[in-house]
Amino acid sequence: MTQALLREVNERIRGLNDDFSIFTGVMQIVCECGDPTCLQAITITPSEYEHLRSDPTWFAVIPGHAVAELEQIIATQPEYHVVQKRRAATAAQASGFNP
To answer: Do 11 and 32 contact (CB within 8 A), yes or no?
Structure first.
């Protein structure tokens, strides 16, 4: 799985999350790291998730899952980090290259 695919998974489960977040104030998403075997859950508020989605190069990952060569940590929360894809990595993904 790629980060883009995991983002799509998170978007599809968003409807369920929206329903539950009314009662809990939080929602669950799947870690958006580049590890195809990682399916760890991240607890995030709906507003944090909306902010994360505001830039297509931002992804939520479990602490320790960022790849320094491809991503820069731009924000940290206790349960997750927000990483931004570096330009070279973004260009490679756009061209279909997946290291």
So the answer is: no
What does the block give as tokens for 48?
A: 């944090």
Q: How many domains does the chain have?
A: 1
Helix or strand run (H / E) with residue 12: helix 3-12
Which SS3 state, helix, strand or coil, does residue 67 take? coil
Single-letter amino acid code for the residue at 90 = T
Compute the distance between CA of residue 30 and CA of residue 33 in angstroms, rounded to an integer. 9
Q: Choose between 25 and 41: higher pLDDT.
A: 41
Higher pLDDT, 8 or 59: 59
Which residue segment(s) compose the domain that 46 sits in?
A: 3-94
Q: Are 40 and 31 within 8 A, CB to CB?
A: yes
Q: Is residue 99 part of a domain?
A: no
Are 62 and 42 in contact, with CB atoms under 8 Å apart?
A: yes
CB 38 within 8 A of CB 6: no
